[in-house]
Amino acid sequence: MTDRQDCITLNKAALAEAVVSKVENIDRQSAKVLVEEFFEMIARHLEQGDTVKIPGLGNFSVRQKVARPGRNLKTGETVTISERRVVTFHPSGTLNARVTANLIRDEEEEASTNER
């Protein structure tokens, strides 16, 4: 397995540029509005407690966490962590399969490189 920890940031501007490059007859401003509205729609539904399913990517859902005891690591003092709502993401089977396929291919490439 590789120790590669690639991390890319996909900001809204980069996503809008990708839309402009892939979709004919769309200008940057329209692509920016499209990307903004896409994320705003997801956020609105999550605020309402809905689950958002994006086929091929996964599901975003809101989970209620109950209050629980915790500890301040600096002082050792026991504190209560308040109840809250958190957003969770569960990848789709399609996304999992793609990631796993790439992982297997990377391991095979590394093994063949090490044999040389």
Automatic annotation (TrEMBL):
Keywords: DNA recombination, DNA-binding, Transcription, Transcription regulation, Translation regulation. Gene3D superfamilies: IHF-like DNA-binding proteins (4.10.520.10). It comes from the Bacteria. Belongs to the bacterial histone-like protein family. This is Integration host factor subunit alpha. It comes from Sutterella massiliensis.
